Amino acid sequence: SPDQSYYLIAHRKQIFCRITLRVLRRQTALSQAMAGGGFVSSAGGTEFEAKITPIVIMSCIMAATGGLMFGYDVGVSGGVTSMPAFLEKFFPVVARKTQDPTLNNSNYCKYDNQGLQLFTSSLYLAGLTATFFASYTTRTLGRRPTMLIAGLFFIAGVVLNAAAQDLAMLIVGRILLGCGVGFANQAVPLFLSEIAPTRIRGALNILFQLNVTIGILFANLINYGTAKGGWGWRLSLGLAGVPAVLLTVGALLVSETPNSLIERGRLDEGKAVLRKIRGTDKIEPEFLELVEASRIAKEVKHPFRNLLKRKNRPPLVISIALQIFQQCTGINAIMFYAPVLFNTVGFGSDASLYSAVITGAVNVLSTVVSIYSVDRLGRRKLLLEAGVQMLLSQVVIAVVLGIKVTDHSDDLGKGFAALVVIMVCTFVSAFAWSWGPLGWLIPSETFPLETRSAGQSVTVCVNLLFTFVIAQAFLSMLCHFKFGIFLFFSGWVAVMSVFVFFLVPETKNVPIEEMTDKVWAQHWLWKRFVEEDGDVEMEGRVGVNGKGNGSNGVDYSS
């Protein structure tokens, strides 16, 4: 019939495109091998030809300033909440408790105040809400405009925080900063994954996490320098405007990703950008693969509903689990409240801020280690090694605090105080080269294009939800659990290490578009989801009456 003829021609065109793509891939692999310049991935596939161009490096550096802003917001809150002038203006009850030990039932309860925790956690609750809107803008407007929106939110939040006259103004400013976090954390990891060549995708993606750690370090240094003045907290909060402006300007200067342009039907622009960022004219195989992935993506009318399909279960489960586990390491509790924590266990005000600076510096250096090692050692090895290191360091901290810090005595002594700082640094370093960057990298590189924006949205949402929970509960948990808080987190570290060992496959050097075939289909558990779903789809394609599930009886699987 004419109807069947129409669909037969359409499917033959699809077959021709796929065969052309495969032929081009093989020709590229052959020419690279003859020239001695081929890149063979560890998963057995051939990478697309690409140079590490200056435009890629500069684009990634500019985009990753979103991490700088996020890190500064994380680091600055712990510092200002330990400043007497800030506490006296916004939290007078806490200020009295820190100055008069007789008002406390326990040294661990000095800072136990829901309002103080809300100041820190409101940012992440706002980010959680904003990420749903960011998913829409990332998909329909692109990665670049979403980063620009994030920068504008950051600037507005900084102005309100620096000029705050009461607690309400302070919280509204934090909420606007949270909206910026939601948009930035949605767009930046996707931008970095899509613009980077496969063989250095991990290293460039970790630039985001590196900038998070640099932001935390800068915040700690500024807090240390401004702690003495009565206006110091305003300067600390106001200087967040520097990374906010950098992100906004960077979003105006960088190019949109080829994936986003092709996904929105701008094929010529996408091809031109791909040629520019790859530094070569031999982009046809990669371009055709992006077009094919975009075609499949456009067939998905409801990406969030599609995300729940059986074939998408592996990346979805792993992404959600990684975000939950990342927060349950206790890292953000330590980074948010490092000065408060050190003050609680017996460090003086200056010593606590100084110790926070040390941990911030260790955080930055260890993230640099991750950039070097992630595409050499792989994701799994870093996660498993760090699990052992974090577990041991937290147990040692719990033992020392259990022996030396009681409800009414916090005299650690120089030796034990140094040991606590060393163990905190050991813990932070392990996190910084593993769970910190890889918690963002692995989700951004495992979702297929048709669900990538929705998948990243869920990833950010879960991360911010559990960040909010930990930030809102940590000081109360510290008051009730005392030193046992570190045993609580170490138990989670043990659980997540077992999860990685059995359920997280290696994704090193695997092109994003080939994750299903080369990662999930090869895993002992996840292949059941991919294979069974594939069987169901194939049955749907070959209909009994010639009109199968969208394929009208035509079997083009070969």
TrEMBL record:
Q: Which UniProt keywords apply?
A: Membrane, Sugar transport, Symport, Transmembrane, Transmembrane helix, Transport
> Where exactly are the transmembrane stretches of this chain?
52-72, 115-134, 146-164, 170-192, 204-225, 231-254, 316-340, 352-374, 386-403, 415-436, 457-477, 483-504
Q: Where in the cell is it found?
A: Membrane
According to the entry, every stretch annotated as the Major facilitator superfamily (MFS) profile domain falls at 59-508
Tell me what this protein is called. Major facilitator superfamily (MFS) profile domain-containing protein
Membrane topology per the entry is: Multi-pass membrane protein
Q: Which family does it belong to?
A: Belongs to the major facilitator superfamily. Sugar transporter (TC 2.A.1.1) family.
Please tell me one Gene Ontology term that the record gives under cellular component: membrane
Q: What is its main location?
A: membrane
Query: Which is a Pfam family this sequence falls into?
Result: Sugar_tr
State the species of origin: Linum tenue
